[in-house]
Amino acid sequence: MAGSEIQQLLDMVDQGYDHKSWHGTNLRGSLRGLTATQVVWRPEPGRHNIWELTLHAAYWKYVAWRRLTGAQHGSFPIKGSNWFERNEADDKAWRSDLALLGRMHRSVRDAVAALPAKQIYTKPAGSKVSNFALISGIAAHDFYHAGQIQLLKRLASK
Question: What is the dihedral of CA 104, 107, 26, 12, to 10 degrees?
Answer without folding.
Answer: -150
